[in-house]
Specification:
Beta-lactamase; three-stranded antiparallel sheet; 12 helices; 19% strand; alpha+beta; five-stranded antiparallel sheet; 414 residues; single chain
Length: 414
C-alpha cells in the first residue's frame, strides 16, 4: 500500500509541475512584463482603465527560410474604450495616397509629380509651392516624408484632400477595418460639412504638362456612430464648460487596426491579399524608409535637429526623445493630442537579431479637462511608452528563437 501511495504522490506532483509549466507557457507575456517591472508599471496597472491603457504586442518567429510567423498578445484591449488617434491617422492616409496613384495608372503620374492644391471655398487652402522640399515643388513624396519625419499636419491635410472621405472609408473597409473613421483635417478647425468638401487638385510633370485634374469633391460618406464623451469639462473660446467633451465627430481607429496596418506594410507577403495596401515594391521601400527615418536623415535638411531630437518621434523605447541607438531601427507612427498618446511600431535590433511589433495608447489627462493644454505627457505618457518599449525589448533579448531572423532588408541607406 505504501508503495502505491508514494507512486500516487509522485504522480500528483509530476502532474502539478506539468500544469504549472503549462500555465507559465500560456501566460500572456505582456502581463508578465508589466508585473515584473513594478517600479515602472504598478501605478499604470492599478489605474489601467482610468488611463485608458491599451497594448498590442506581436512576437515574431522565423522559419528556416526566414519566413515570419506571428503570435499576437494584448493587454486591456477594448474597442469600446475610445482614444483619440491624433497623428497616427497619417499612416493609413499616406499609404492610401500611394495606392490611389497606382489605381489611377496614368502615364507619367507618380509620387514625384507636382501637386497643386486649389481652393473652392474660403476655408480651403491654395498650395502652389512647398518650402520643405529640395526644389520647392509640392509632391506626394515630399508630403509623406514630412508626415513621418516631423508629423506635419499640413502634409496630412493635403493628402486627405487628395483622397477624400469616401475613398478613405471605402478602402479601409475593403481591407478589413470597417469601423475606422478618418473624417477631418488636423490642427485647423472646420465643421463636419467643411471637412466633407475637399479641394480641387491638379498634377503636372516637370515640364508643366497637366497629367491629371481632380475636381472638388463633396463626400456622402456615412460613418459608423461614435459615442464618446470624456472628462468633466473643456475650454471653448477661452471659457470653461463644465460638461464632458464630445469626440463624436472626431477620427477613430482601433489600436489593433493600426497594429495590423503596420504588420501589412512591413510583412505584406504574410498578409492576406484583401488586407494589403496596393503598393509596388518601390512604394514599400519608400514608405519603410521614411517610417524608420530620423529628422536629420531627410533628403532636405531645414529641420533644426537641436530642437527636433533624433528619436523625438519614437516614443516606444525612447520616450520624449533621446539620441538614437544605431543598432536599433524603429518603423513607426506616433500621435498625440487631447491628452492621448499613441505609438504604433515595428522594432528591429540589428546587432542582437531581435524584431517585434508593439503598439500602445494611454490617456494623460489627470484633471479631466480638455483644451486646457495641461496634459501629463511628460510625467505620465512618455515615461510609460519609454519603459514599455524597453521592457518588451529586454524580454525579446532573452526570448528563445529556433532561427535568428535575417534583417538585412531593413538595413536602409539615407
Amino acid at each position: 500500500m505504501r508503495k502505491y501511495f508514494l507512486l500516487s504522490v509522485l504522480l500528483f506532483q509530476f502532474q502539478l509541475v506539468q500544469a504549472q509549466n503549462r500555465n507559465v507557457a500560456e501566460e500572456n507575456p505582456l502581463e508578465v512584463i508589466l508585473k515584473s517591472n513594478p517600479a515602472a508599471f504598478d501605478h499604470i496597472l492599478r489605474n489601467k482603465d482610468s488611463f485608458r491603457v491599451q497594448i498590442v504586442y506581436t512576437a515574431i518567429n522565423r522559419k528556416r527560410n526566414n519566413k515570419a510567423s506571428f503570435t499576437e498578445y494584448s493587454y486591456n484591449l477594448n474597442n469600446q474604450t475610445y482614444f483619440y488617434p491624433a497623428s497616427t491617422v497619417k499612416m493609413p492616409v499616406a499609404l492610401l495616397a500611394l495606392e490611389k496613384l497606382n489605381e489611377l495608372n496614368i502615364p507619367g503620374l507618380d509620387m514625384n509629380s507636382t501637386m497643386i492644391t486649389d481652393s473652392s471655398a474660403p476655408t480651403e487652402d491654395y498650395v502652389y509651392n512647398q518650402p520643405q522640399s529640395s526644389d520647392g515643388r509640392p509632391t506626394i513624396a515630399n508630403y509623406i516624408q514630412q508626415i513621418f519625419l516631423v508629423s506635419s499636419n499640413d502634409a496630412f491635410n493635403r493628402l486627405y484632400e487628395f483622397l477624400g472621405q469616401e475613398y478613405i472609408q471605402q478602402k479601409l473597409r475593403e481591407k478589413g477595418y470597417p469601423d475606422a473613421i478618418i473624417r477631418h483635417r488636423l490642427q485647423i478647425s472646420r465643421t463636419p460639412e467643411q471637412n466633407a468638401v475637399t479641394n480641387a487638385i491638379r498634377f503636372y510633370d516637370t515640364s508643366g504638362n497637366l497629367l491629371y485634374s481632380q475636381p472638388a469633391q463633396t463626400s456622402k460618406a456615412v460613418h459608423p456612430a461614435v459615442d464618446a464623451s470624456l472628462g468633466k469639462g473643456y475650454y471653448s473660446n477661452g471659457k470653461l464648460v463644465n460638461s464632458p467633451f464630445s469626440f463624436n465627430q472626431k477620427n477613430r481607429v482601433y489600436l489593433q487596426d493600426f497594429h495590423h496596418m503596420m504588420q501589412a506594410v512591413m510583412f505584406p507577403e504574410t498578409t492576406p491579399k484583401k488586407k494589403r495596401f496596393k503598393l509596388t515594391e518601390a512604394d514599400y521601400g519608400f514608405i519603410r524608409k521614411w517610417m524608420g527615418a530620423y529628422p536629420e536623415e531627410g533628403i532636405f535638411s531645414p529641420y533644426d535637429t537641436a530642437k527636433t531630437l533624433s528619436a523625438n518621434n519614437k516614443a516606444l523605447y525612447y520616450g520624449a526623445g533621446n539620441k538614437a541607438e544605431p543598432q536599433i531601427r524603429i518603423f513607426n507612427k506616433i500621435g498625440g493630442a487631447y491628452g492621448f498618446l499613441v505609438d504604433v511600431a515595428y522594432v528591429v535590433d540589428l546587432e542582437n537579431k531581435v524584431e517585434y511589433l508593439l503598439s500602445a495608447t494611454i490617456s494623460c489627462n489627470s484633471d479631466g479637462i480638455y483644451n486646457d493644454d495641461r496634459y501629463d505627457y511628460e510625467t505620465l505618457g512618455y515615461p510609460f511608452l519609454k519603459e514599455l518599449g524597453r521592457a518588451v525589448h529586454r524580454y525579446e533579448l532573452q526570448r528563445k528563437r529556433r532561427y535568428l531572423p535575417d534583417l538585412q532588408s531593413f538595413v536602409l541607406q539615407y
